[in-house]
Amino acid sequence: MTRRKSDTGRRSDSFGTTLNELTLPARQGLGRGLDALARLPKGHRTGILLLLPLWLLLLLWQPAPAVPPVPVSGALSVPLGTDHSDTLPIPEGGERLDHRVAQGETLSSLFRTLQLPGTDVIALVRAEPSYKPISNLRAGQNLILILNGQGQLHYLEIREQGLTISAFRRLGQEFALVNTP
Questions:
Q1: What pTM does this model have?
Q2: Which of 20, 157, 38, 57 is nearest to 99 (CA)?
């Protein structure tokens, strides 16, 4: 429905009239589209009404621009661990032994040299975690052994480059893995 010019030749140039004239083709097209949508089966109409907003969102969505890589500069010094070896408690009458593992040396050979019981080696291997720090001793690793007053192993710590790899503490006749900082 369009208006005819009045006989006087005056035309209303209000914003509402201009907006109405500009949007009329779009509104008429929308009306025809809704009529066509009404003729579709209900399942199709529901699918279109659900998927159309999602499709419009995907169409309007813009991914964030890629962040340009920043070149690495400077230096960062992070201490990997602190030396806690001086703070280990030694039982009364016991002693502390520090030992660096030599090439080809095993814990069994060290125990024989120090005249420690072989049953302690077996108990340590039983307490060994899956990464096998006792079975895989390497040359250059440091061992801290703390013996109790009876000459039995009380505590064993395996270190490499100042970091504690594993520590074991005696619990009766067995050993348990100790959580270290």
A1: 0.52
A2: 157
